[in-house]
Amino acid sequence: MRRGSIAQLVGIGLLAGGIATAMAVFLPWLPKPASREAGRIDFVFWFVVIICIVIFAIVAAAIVYSVTHFRAQPDDLSDGPPIHGHTGLEIVWTIIPTLLVTAIGIASAIVLSRDDALGKNVLRVNVTAQQFVWTFSYPSANNLTSATLVLPKDRSVLLTFTSKDVIHSFWVPEFGQKQDTVPGIHPTLHITPDRLGTFPVICTELCGLGHALMRTQTRVVTPAAFTKWLQTEAAAIASPNAGTAGGAVFANNGCGACHTLTAAKSTGKVGPDLDKLPAEAAQAKQPLATFIHDSIVDPNKYIQPGYLKNLMPQTFGSSLSKQQLDALVQYLIDSSKK
Ligand code: CUA
Known about the structure:
The protein is α+β, with helices and mostly antiparallel strands and 338 residues long.
C-alpha cells in the first residue's frame, strides 16, 4: 500500500471520528446525573460510545476510500475477482468484537452490582403507583405519605414499588434508572442522590388516559433539611386543626396535580376547579359536604360536565382513613367558600 493511501485513510478516519465525537460531546443527549448510580451508568455509556466512535471512524475510512478509489468504470461489465475467504482476517474480525463485547459486559456487570449494593443507614421509601398518581410513604416516619419524593443527599435510598392497578414505570432522568411497577410484585430500586435540586418523576409506561399527566417531582435536600421536612409534615398531619390536617391530606395525595385550589396554591387543570365546588355542587343538585365526600370516594358517580370519566383515582375511599377523609372534606368546604 502506498504511503499516500495510508495518509488518506487516516485523514478520512480522523474526520469521521472528529464529527462523531463532536456530536457525542456537544449535543445534550443525557441530563446531568444526580445520583451515584447514574454517574456509573454514564461511565458505561461513554465507554461504549468511545468504542463505537473508533469503529465508526475505521469503517467510514474504509468505505469512503473504497468508493472513491475502486469504483468500476461505466463500461466495465466484467465480474470482480472470486474470493474464497481469508482465514487470518476472519480470526481478527472475530477476536476484536469478542474482546470488546466481553469488556462492555464486564464493565456493565461491575456497575450493576455496585449500583445495587446498599450503603449504610438505608432510607426506605414505599412508592405506590396508580392511575394516575404517585405517592411516596416513609416507613421510618410512621408511614408519612407525600405526593413528592423528598430525599436526603448522599444517603442510600431503597424504593419499593407497589402498583394498585396496571403496569406503570418510575423514571427520574437525572437518576439514570427506570423501574416498572407491576401489580402483584414489589420491585425495588436503589438510588444514592448526590446533587441537590428538583427533578421530574415521570411515568414512562403507557398506563391509560392520564398517562401523560402522571408526573410529580423529587426534591433532593440536605440531610438537615430532610429531617426538618419530616417533622413539619408529621406535625401538619397530626394537627388538631382540620384545615391544616386536610391541607396536608390534599398536598400528600397529589390532588393539586390535577385540581386548581387557591388555598393550596395549586393550578391543575385536569380535573374540576375546586375553588368552584359550591357552584358545582349546586349544579349537581347535592349538598356541598355530600357532593365533595362522594366525589372523592366514588368519583365516577357524578362527572362534572366537560370532564372525563376514569381519570380521578378510584381508590381514595380505601386509601384514606376516615379522619383523613373528614379532614379533607372539611378543608375543601372551608377553602372553596373563601
Ligand atoms: Cu402510569 Cu403511565
